[in-house]
UniProtKB/TrEMBL annotation:
InterPro entries: Tam41
Pathway entry: Lipid metabolism; Phospholipid metabolism; CDP-diacylglycerol biosynthesis; CDP-diacylglycerol from sn-glycerol 3-phosphate: step 3/3
Similarity comment: Belongs to the TAM41 family.
Lineage, opening ranks: Eukaryota, Metazoa, Chordata, Craniata, Vertebrata
Keyword Lipid metabolism: yes
Chief localization: mitochondrion
Locations listed in the record: Mitochondrion inner membrane
Record keywords, A-Z: Lipid biosynthesis, Lipid metabolism, Magnesium, Membrane, Mitochondrion, Mitochondrion inner membrane, Nucleotidyltransferase, Phospholipid biosynthesis, Phospholipid metabolism, Transferase
Role according to the record: Catalyzes the conversion of phosphatidic acid (PA) to CDP-diacylglycerol (CDP-DAG), an essential intermediate in the synthesis of phosphatidylglycerol, cardiolipin and phosphatidylinositol.
Any GO MF annotation of the entry: phosphatidate cytidylyltransferase activity
Pfam families associated with the record: Tam41_Mmp37
Name used for this protein in its record: Phosphatidate cytidylyltransferase, mitochondrial
Length: 338
């Protein structure tokens, strides 16, 4: 059993990571078991499940090795072998394969496996925003390879989150307003926010983690020509002119631009993306259009990934995990002032 003093330390996380195949390009831990959230005591935090994501270059090889080391982590799908598991990972949902409610070193963990190629695609283009959205918020990087392409994609994802948020915020706003908007991007359209998640989740994530958000985004904000950033006052002013909004729209990830064009352009017109985005930039409801387009991406990926999770976790673990989420949602309701 792990000593309490080691919980949530670098040594503790490295001990967990050492129990998996080491061919990993990026490993990070995230969620309420890693970062304290408002309304959660240190004692409760130590009981929360730890969430991990492992990006791997070759999913078939990685699952082959993991099935030999950690066969009990898998549901009945283990009987289909590593190739079929990798096919399920890559071809369904958001391209992630989760094993959940896994006991390791006195804690329960959940870990998702995604191919490095799929991760980079999501970071750059927001195809599903499933893992890209998790990386909009502070995470604990446990291991990162030397891939320049992956590093550039990670930075580009953060810049995209800032740009999308600018379009949905007023001309002047606080740092905390920005961080709330960024943290909420990946929950727009997520059906789990209707049932299964605490409705105060986004605020709970941000309130106790403002310094982490500031560390993550400070350089991007200082270098961005579209905003006046006053870190001492914690205030920002963004260019809300049609010209400024057009520049921001043109910088958005490809999939988001495509979703915006589908919302705005009537079928059969087939105007080019630049023309449509110029029109949206002049629309007083520009921010609402961007939010609706983000919601359309998140809605699909959250539904399909959750459906896939029934198979990858198995019925018993899915039921147990869902009950835990519903309890958390109920506690959130009870915390709210009447």
């Amino acid at each position: 059993m792990t000593l309490p003093a080691l919980q949530n330390t670098g040594v503790f996380f490295r001990r967990i990571l050492s129990q998996f195949p080491q061919d990993i390009s990026l490993a990070f831990a995230y969620g309420s078991g890693v970062f304290k959230q408002q309304g959660t005591s240190q004692g409760q935090m130590g009981k929360n499940m730890l969430d991990f994501v492992f990006a791997v270059d070759d999913p078939v090889t990685w699952h082959t090795m993991n099935l030999m080391q950690n066969r009990r982590h898998y549901s009945f799908l283990k009987y289909f072998g590593p190739k079929q598991i990798s096919t399920i990972q890559n071809d369904y949902g958001a391209g992630v394969y989760y094993n959940t409610l896994v006991p390791i070193d006195g804690r329960l963990i959940k870990y998702g496996v995604i191919s490095t190629e799929t991760l980079i695609d999501d970071l750059m283009h927001w195809k599903t925003m499933y893992i890209a959205g998790r990386l909009h918020k502070p995470v604990r990087i446990l291991l990162q390879g030397e891939s320049g392409k992956l590093q550039a994609a990670l930075l580009g994802n953060l810049k995209s989150a800032v740009t999308a948020s600018f379009l949905m915020l007023p001309e002047s706003f606080s740092e905390e307003d920005l961080f709330l908007q960024i943290a909420g991007l990946s929950y727009c359209g997520d059906f789990r926010m209707v049932i299964g998640e605490d409705k105060s989740k986004v605020a709970n994530i941000v309130k106790d983690s403002v310094p982490y958000f500031r560390t993550l985004y400070s350089n991007i904000l200082q270098e961005c020509p579209q905003v006046v950033y006053k870190p001492q006052q914690g205030r920002l002013e963004v260019d809300k002119s049609p010209e400024g909004q057009f520049v921001q729209l043109m910088a958005l990830p490809r999939t988001l631009q495509q979703q915006i064009t589908r919302l705005v352009d009537p079928p059969g017109k087939n105007r080019d993306v630049e023309e449509i985005l110029l029109q949206v930039a002049q629309d007083p409801d520009c921010g609402a259009v961007v939010q609706q387009a983000i919601a359309s991406i998140v809605k699909i990926s959250s539904l399909t990934q959750s459906a896939k999770g029934i198979g990858t976790a198995g019925i018993l673990k899915t039921t147990s995990y869902s009950v835990k989420k519903l309890r958390k949602m109920w506690k959130g309701w009870r915390r709210k002032p009447s």
